[in-house]
UniProtKB/TrEMBL annotation:
<feature type="transmembrane region" description="Helical">
    <location>
        <begin position="21"/>
        <end position="41"/>
    </location>
</feature>
<feature type="transmembrane region" description="Helical">
    <location>
        <begin position="202"/>
        <end position="235"/>
    </location>
</feature>
<keyword id="KW-1133">Transmembrane helix</keyword>
<keyword id="KW-0472">Membrane</keyword>
<protein>
    <submittedName>
        <fullName>ABC-2 family transporter protein</fullName>
    </submittedName>
</protein>
<feature type="transmembrane region" description="Helical">
    <location>
        <begin position="91"/>
        <end position="118"/>
    </location>
</feature>
<feature type="transmembrane region" description="Helical">
    <location>
        <begin position="47"/>
        <end position="70"/>
    </location>
</feature>
<feature type="transmembrane region" description="Helical">
    <location>
        <begin position="159"/>
        <end position="182"/>
    </location>
</feature>
<dbReference type="InterPro" id="IPR025699">
    <property type="entry name" value="ABC2_memb-like"/>
</dbReference>
<feature type="transmembrane region" description="Helical">
    <location>
        <begin position="124"/>
        <end position="147"/>
    </location>
</feature>
<dbReference type="Pfam" id="PF13346">
    <property type="entry name" value="ABC2_membrane_5"/>
</dbReference>
<keyword id="KW-0812">Transmembrane</keyword>
Length: 239
């Protein structure tokens, strides 16, 4: 099994780097270097954690998804049905690509946020650094856990459209719920805000341990469910 997964992982890596290894390395190295250079000039202001998490996450989010675009180019994705690697191994190998991207993401966010702290105060606050890294990992895992099954089910373009519609639908549903609560039960809004504030204060008072555990559990459950869904979709697919 491990040999098949390794072959599938290697095939996806070759797909990602098919436009040139140098371009991928320049992308992975260039963005953090740019953030650090800007931070060194500006003194490491508060935008650096957000820029690192948002920018690096968005950049790395595309790499696993690019494997689907390369498969669909020239309609050559049918070859996945005949290559000597089982479909299960192909899916697991693709999720290993996500795992590799998570490691790169954690490293780059840690470097960028840590550099920003050094520029601003001359010292690294490891609890805040850990929270930034964890936030980036959880956001990345949640996004990929939704996008990968969608890409197995639809074409890459339809998957992006579906993801956009899901986000719009969730936003609209939340807005409608809050609007109804504000109209029918105004006191419930205040109670909900008070509960959220007290929960955040309780989590903050507990240190990094509980947020870290909650984040790890959330990301793990999301990825496990995503893997199971992708396997179900891909094993039933006809090429």
């Amino acid at each position: 099994m491990m040999a098949g997964v390794a072959r599938a992982f290697g095939l996806d890596v070759r797909r990602i780097t098919s436009q040139g290894v140098f371009s991928i390395l320049a992308l992975l190295i260039g963005f953090p270097v740019a953030i650090i250079l800007i931070g060194s000039i500006s003194g490491g202001v508060s935008y650096m954690p957000g820029a690192a998490i948002g920018g690096v996450s968005a950049m790395l989010a595309l790499l696993p998804l690019n494997t689907f675009t390369f498969e669909q180019q020239g309609q050559n994705n049918w070859m996945n049905g005949i290559i000597p690697v089982r479909r299960v191994h192909q899916v697991i190998g693709r999720y290993l690509v996500i795992g590799a991207c998570v490691l790169v993401l954690a490293l780059e966010v840690a470097v960028c946020v840590g550099a920003g702290m050094l520029f601003e105060s001359g010292m690294i606050q490891f609890s805040a650094l850990a929270i930034s890294v964890l936030t980036a990992i959880v956001m990345y895992a949640l996004f990929e856990s939704v996008m990968i099954p969608l890409c197995y089910r639809f074409t890459y373009q339809k998957a992006l459209l579906t993801m956009m519609l899901i986000c719009i639908g969730l936003g609209a549903a939340i807005a409608v719920v809050f609007a109804l609560l504000a109209k029918l039960a105004p006191a419930s809004i205040d109670a909900l805000i008070s509960w959220a504030v007290s929960s955040i204060e309780a989590i903050s008072g507990a240190g990094v341990i509980w947020p870290a555990l909650c984040g790890v559990v959330l990301a793990s459950v999301a990825m496990a469910a995503s893997l199971a869904m992708s396997l179900r979709i891909y094993l039933a697919k006809e090429f």
